[in-house]
Design brief:
The protein is of the alpha/beta class. The protein has helices at about 55-70, 90-105, 115-125, 130-135, 140-175, and strands at about 20-25, 30-35, 40-50, 70-80, 110-115. The protein contains five helices and five strands. The termini are far apart.
């Protein structure tokens, strides 16, 4: 027997297994999450820290290393809108970060609404019994997981809807149809 087969979602661009990276960009940290090759679950892998808010070179370099290591084909970046749907200073900084990241990696970047992810991350840590003084160490990574997992669920639900639509059209017409038509 030659070994176990690895199932994955294949990139249309290069035919390789695809992973998606989720990022929670903050003033001094970036939480990083990576999808599994099937694009079902998100796992938190790291928090990239920097000493000063405007010093991004090392942060971008570390993210590039992770992109290479995990063979990432797409990035999902948390979009920090206010609860009233307005955009503040953090949105402008996040857009600047996205531009720098896109120039360095040439990967597609999707913005994903990150409202309440920090609250949800805190709630998750409370439920897990993580002490208050230790939560700050984990919150950005967990927020990145929540951002990426939301996006993965959205993609899967959207694809399921397309397949269901195609199946119902096939039933009506009696003609087999390719998904997405």
């Amino acid at each position: 027997m030659s070994g176990a087969a690895v199932l994955c979602t294949v990139s249309e661009k290069d035919g390789k297994c695809m992973r998606i990276m989720g990022l929670d960009f903050g003033s001094k940290t970036v939480g990083v999450a990576i999808s599994d090759p099937l694009l079902i679950t998100a796992q938190g892998i790291e928090i990239v820290r920097r000493k000063e808010e405007n010093k991004l070179r090392q942060t971008l370099a570390r993210i590039e290393e992770l992109i290479t290591e995990y063979e990432v084909k797409e990035i999902v970046l948390g979009y920090p809108k206010h609860m009233n749907d307005s955009e503040g200073d953090r949105v402008a900084l996040t857009k600047e970060f996205a531009e720098k990241l896109m120039r360095r990696t040439a990967l597609p970047i999707t913005f994903w609404d990150e409202r309440l992810t920090t609250v949800a991350a805190d709630r998750t840590m409370i439920e897990a019994g993580i002490r208050r003084e230790n939560r700050k160490e984990h919150v950005d990574r967990i927020a990145a997981v929540l951002i990426l997992q939301g996006y993965l669920d959205y993609r899967r639900n959207r694809e399921d809807g397309v397949l269901e639509q195609a199946a119902s059209k096939e039933e009506r017409s009696g003609i087999p149809m390719e998904p997405g038509f």
